[in-house]
Amino acid sequence: MTDTLPAAAAVTTAPHPRLSLNQATIKYADLATALRLTADAGVSSIGLWREPVAEVGLETAVRLVADSGLRVSSLCRGGFITVPEGPARRAAIDDNRRAINETAALGAPTLVLVAGGLPAGSRDLIGARDRVRDAIGELAGEARAAGVTLAIEPLHPMYASDRAVISTLGQALDIAEQFGADVVGVVVDTFHVWWDPALAAQVARAGAGGYIASYQVCDWATPLPTDVLLARHYPGDGVIDFAAVSALVQAAGYTGDVEVEIFNQAIWDTPAADVVARTVASFTATVAPHL
Amino acid sequence: MTDTLPAAAAVTTAPHPRLSLNQATIKYADLATALRLTADAGVSSIGLWREPVAEVGLETAVRLVADSGLRVSSLCRGGFITVPEGPARRAAIDDNRRAINETAALGAPTLVLVAGGLPAGSRDLIGARDRVRDAIGELAGEARAAGVTLAIEPLHPMYASDRAVISTLGQALDIAEQFGADVVGVVVDTFHVWWDPALAAQVARAGAGGYIASYQVCDWATPLPTDVLLARHYPGDGVIDFAAVSALVQAAGYTGDVEVEIFNQAIWDTPAADVVARTVASFTATVAPHL
C-alpha cells in the first residue's frame, strides 16, 4: 500500500465532445457562472434554461454565450399547454412563441416542451393530451420559420397528473409524427423512460424518422425523496443501464449532444464547480464509453 | 335551514353486488374482524391477504370465510420472482406454490402476482422481466390443476426498480398470452394504469382474450406522500376518471368483483368500520354507476 497515487491517476481525460451540461444541474449558478464553469471544465456544450437567461436579458445572454465559445444544446423549456381555450391558454401559447424566439436567438436547435398536467379540477386526461397536440399545431409554423425543433419530452408517469400528460416515448412520437421531424421531435431522457417495456422499439422508431431531438441522462434510485421532482442522480448512482439505453440511442442514429440534467437538492447544495467535475466524471465512466 | 335531515337521506342504498373490499384497505383488522365488518356493511365479497390468513392458519381461515358467507374475490399475493436461479429463487417459487394452494383452499378464483423489483445490485431490467415469465411458466401447471388464475398485476412505473418490473397492462398481457386465459390473467388496477396512453387498447385486448382476472379501484392524487407505496385514495378523492376506466372494463366484458384496495396511512389509522362505510359510499358514488 502507498499513500501517494501513481502519476497516471493524475492524468484527467478530456470530457467527451458530446457531453452537454444542462444548467439545471447547477441550478443556483447564474448564466455567466454556468457558462464559465462549463467551459473551464472542458465541456463544449450547455443546455440553458429560460429563467437565468431572462435574469440577464436575452441580448446579454446571447453575447455571454457567444463569448463562452460553447454550443447551446437546447433551451428548457416551453410547454404547459394543457389548459382549455381562454386567456390562460392564449398566454401559454404566447409564452411558447417567446420561447421559440429565445431558442433561435441563443443558437440552440431545440426547445424542450413539457406538456403540463391536468388542469385544476379536471379528470379529462385524454382532452388534456389532445390540447397538447393542438398547441403544437399552433406553434409549428413559427418554430419552422425560426429553425427550431419543438422537442416533446415525455415525463415519467408519476408526473402525469401534475406536470406532464405526455408519459411515454410512443405517445410523444404519435404527436411528433403528425408534424414531421423538421419541426417536432422528442426528448429521450433516461430518468423518464428507462422503465418502459417499449423503450427499444420506440427509440428505434424515433431514430428511423429522425425524431430524436435530445438525449438526456441521469439516474433513477429509490427510495424516492419526499419531493419526487428531485429524485434524479448522477449517472451510475442508480439502477439505469446506461450502456443498454445509450446503445439503443446510438443505433437509432442520434449524433447530437448528450445532456446531463439532474434535479437533486443535495447536488444543488454542493458547490457548482464540484458538481461540474462530478458530472464530467460520471459521464466519462458511465455514458461516454457507449457513444 | 333545519337541523334534522329529511327521512329520505337516512335511507342507505345497499352496496353494489360486485363491490369487494380488499383487506389491505383495513390493514390492521385481523381476518375475523375484516370478514365481520365486510359482511355487516352488506358487502358480499372480500379480497384477502396471505399474512392475516397465516395468522389464524389456513384451516381456520377457510372455516371463518365459509361462516361469513362472503365470496373471496382474490388472494394477495404471490410473485416476487425476479431473482436469478439459486436458493432464493427456489424459495420464491415454493412460496408461490403454497400461495396457489391457499387460493384454492379459500375458494378464490385468483392469486394476484406482484412481479418484484430488480434484484439487489442489478441493472438488468430485461433479464428480471424474463425471469418473471419463466417463473410463471414453472407455476402454470399447478395453478391450472388447482383451478387458480395467476393474475399478473402491472404496477405503476414508479415502482419498477424496487417492487414490480411489470409496469404496463400491455406488458402483462404479453406474458399472459403465452400461457392462456385459463391459467394466467391480468389485474387492471386504476391506480397503476390510469396514466397509460395505451389503456383503452390494452383493456380491450385483455377483455377480448378473457384475460381480465381482477378489476381494482382506488384514486391517484398529488403530492405523493413520502412513502409512495401509501399514495392511494378513496375513489373520487383524486384525478382518476372512474366513469371512463370502468366503461372500458365493462365494454371489455369483465363481470367479476371490483375490489377497493387502498394503501394509505391516514386511512389505516381510521377505525376500520368507518373505513368500510366510507369505502362503500365512495364506490356507490363513483364506480357503481358505471358497472
From TrEMBL, chains A, B:
GO molecular function: isomerase activity
Domain Xylose isomerase-like TIM barrel: start-end pairs: 36-272
SUPFAM superfamilies: Xylose isomerase-like
Organism: Cryobacterium lactosi
Protein name, per record: Sugar phosphate isomerase/epimerase
Domain of life, per lineage: Bacteria
The keyword Mitochondrion is annotated on this UniProt entry: no
Keywords tagged on the record: Carbohydrate metabolism, Isomerase
Gene3D superfamilies: Divalent-metal-dependent TIM barrel enzymes
InterPro entries per the UniProt record, alphabetical: IolE/XylAMocC-like (IPR050312), Xyl_isomerase-like_sf (IPR036237), Xyl_isomerase-like_TIM-brl (IPR013022)
